[in-house]
Amino acid sequence: MNQLRGAHAIACISQSEPGKIVVARKGNAGGITIGHGNGESFVSSDTSALVPLTTNVTYIESSEMAVITSTECSISSLDGKAIETKTHQLDIDSSSIAKGGF
């Protein structure tokens, strides 16, 4: 990420480490939200997309990265320093984000 210029939000997976997702955000690239379920985790750039799956989320801020498995989520700065984050409870239900027929 340090070699990239500008604003970026990325998510990566690898065949050599199935079950692991690495996400990173640099600059004002839009959000990355991690959803926490029962024995499963989700990643989205749109928090409302997670509502049917879970209402427990963690937000990745600029200059942060996360390593996510189905049961764990470790967050650090882009230079590798561990960061304590807060899990947020979404106060929204699926019916309030319906597409209205679209």
Account of the protein in words:
This protein has 102 residues and is an all-beta fold. The chain has one domain. Helices cover 0% and strands 36% of the residues. It has no helices and eight strands. The chain has strands at 8-12, 21-26, 32-36, 41-44, 56-60, 64-68, 73-77, 88-89. It has a four-stranded antiparallel β-sheet with strand order 1-2-6-7, with no helix packed on it. Strands 4-3-5-8 form a four-stranded antiparallel β-sheet, with no helix packed on it. 15% of the residues are buried. The mean pLDDT is 87.
Radius of gyration: 14 Å
Q: Count every helix, treating DSSP H or I runs of 4 or more residues as helices.
A: 0
Q: Sheet with the most strands?
A: 4 strands, antiparallel
Mean pLDDT: 87
What is the percentage of strand-forming residues?
Answer: 35-45%
Describe how the helices and strands are arranged.
Blueprint: E1 8-12, E2 21-26, E3 32-36, E4 41-44, E5 56-60, E6 64-68, E7 73-77, E8 88-89
Antiparallel strand pairs: 1-2, 2-6, 3-4, 3-5, 5-8, 6-7
Give the gist of this structure:
The protein has no helices and eight strands. It has 102 residues and is mainly beta. β6 and β7 form a beta hairpin.
